[in-house]
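Budget justification aside, the reviewers requested a transparent look at the raw inputs and outputs of the sequence design task funded under Objective 1. We therefore reproduce one unedited record. The lines immediately below are the structure tokens for a 105-residue chain.
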């Protein structure tokens, strides 16, 4: 099993991990976990068609949010790209002052 550790984005601490950052792929050999990631609406549809492990996010805007099962069926590079895009989309919607605090003016 591949353990995937996402680099910690600027402005986050381990005391407040974001919902969009998976700490690992799988739960130390147990059942795989899942993560909710924000996504461009057109890409979200494409990813759902490409991977069985990706589905619309329950109780969220289903156009922009995907639930991704961390069952190792998605290549690491694709998963990393999805996490990074989600982070950028979420940070991009923060108020300017908060973005500035993250070094994102």
């Amino acid at each position: 099993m591949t353990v995937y550790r996402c680099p910690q984005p600027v402005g986050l601490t381990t005391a407040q991990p974001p919902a969009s950052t998976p700490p690992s792929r799988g739960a130390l050999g147990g059942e795989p976990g899942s993560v909710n990631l924000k996504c461009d609406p057109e890409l979200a549809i494409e990813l759902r068609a490409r991977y069985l492990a990706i589905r619309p996010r329950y109780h969220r805007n289903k156009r922009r949010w995907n639930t991704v099962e961390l069952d190792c069926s998605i290549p690491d590079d694709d998963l990393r790209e999805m996490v990074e895009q989600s982070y950028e989309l979420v940070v991009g919607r923060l108020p300017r002052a908060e973005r500035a605090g993250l070094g994102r003016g």
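Residues 34-101 form a domain with the Aspartate Aminotransferase, domain 1 fold (CATH 3.90.1150.30). The chain is about 30% helix and 10% strand. Computational costs for records of this kind are itemized in the attached budget.
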